[in-house]
Amino acid sequence: MHPIVSSRHWAMQLFRVCVLVMMAWWLMGAPNLLAQYGLVEEWPNTDFKQHSVPLSEIISGGPGKDGIPAIDKPEFLSVNENIDWLDDSEPVIALILEDLPGREGEVARAYPLQILIWHEIVNDEIAGLPVAVTFCPLCNASVVFDRRLDGKVLDFGTTGRLRKSDMVMYDRQTESWWQQFMGKGIVGEMTGKTLKVMPSRILSWKDFRTSWPDGYVLSKDTGFYRNYGVNPYQGYDDIKQTPFLLDESPDPRLKAMDRVAVLKTSGGYRAYPYSKLETSGVIHDEIDSKPVVFLTRKNTRSPLDKRLINQSRLMISAQAFSPFVSGQQL
């Protein structure tokens, strides 16, 4: 006979084995099942069977679904109006579009980070072109996407969840989840799909309105009451900080909170630390056998430093350009 049965204390030992098995089941499986059940309750239209990343990597950042509300009906003001709530040095996402149907010349819109820091997503439409202007404060990433995909126009909201300290968005048409930084579907029907990135840049408000005097800026009349101009992530800009809810060790080659400018190449991506850009001022490089030049200017406030953004420290804004003008390389 097996020793557990032949023992005089077999009943107690069997009980102990059962307790250990139940504890192992709870530690290994039950929390995941309960978490999955909670997701299904909150997201009944999301197909969790389809995902390109482990669901365990997607964690709650605190707010629930749409707890950080996207702006769906943005209002705009002419840059020539008296806009006294926006300091000259405050950062804005500049979206400059050309050759739009029925429009001559450029269309320029500015989206102040003092507004985006509270909403993270603006679902906008410019001359019939639907775009999503996004900003993730936790990784200081601003990305603009074309909302058209596979014959659908998608509207985006916030899931309240993070992956690698980056916002996870969702589209309201399929309730699929998207990684904001890469614009990739990671959970649901749209898993594996990629949104088209629209060229954009972060500039100071003064630089924007000077460069595009016929441009427009997102109004504070958003339909929500928020302390626009106040940074709810005070001190997060400290280089010694650790990214919020990052569940892995950062790459040691740079500090986790270092800012970088990134260019896409045919073989991947190339990152340029702001510390190098600020020291050099101008950097010449070659991407896919084509020359590029980085130009920098230190006149834009950090949105993540002081409590009031207009009192935060000045950072550089870095832009990459082709150095060709009228066929001549400068």
Question: Can you give a write-up of this model?
Answer:
This protein is α+β, with helices and mostly antiparallel strands and 330 residues long. 17% of the residues lie in helices and 35% in strands. The chain has helices at residues 3-6, 10-28, 30-42, 113-119, 205-211, 274-280; strands at 58-60, 76-78, 91-98, 106-112, 121-126, 129-136, 141-146, 148-149, 152-153, 156-163, 166-171, 177-179, 184-187, 197-198, 201-204, 216-218, 260-265, 268-273, 282-287, 290-301, 314-321, 324-325, 328-329. A five-stranded antiparallel beta sheet has the order 1-10-11-12-13, with no helix packed on it. A hairpin with a 2-residue loop joins strand 19 and strand 20. The longest helix has 19 residues, at 10-28. The protein is globular and about 55 Å long. The N and C termini lie far apart (89 Å). The model is unreliable at 1-10 and 25-31 (pLDDT under 50).
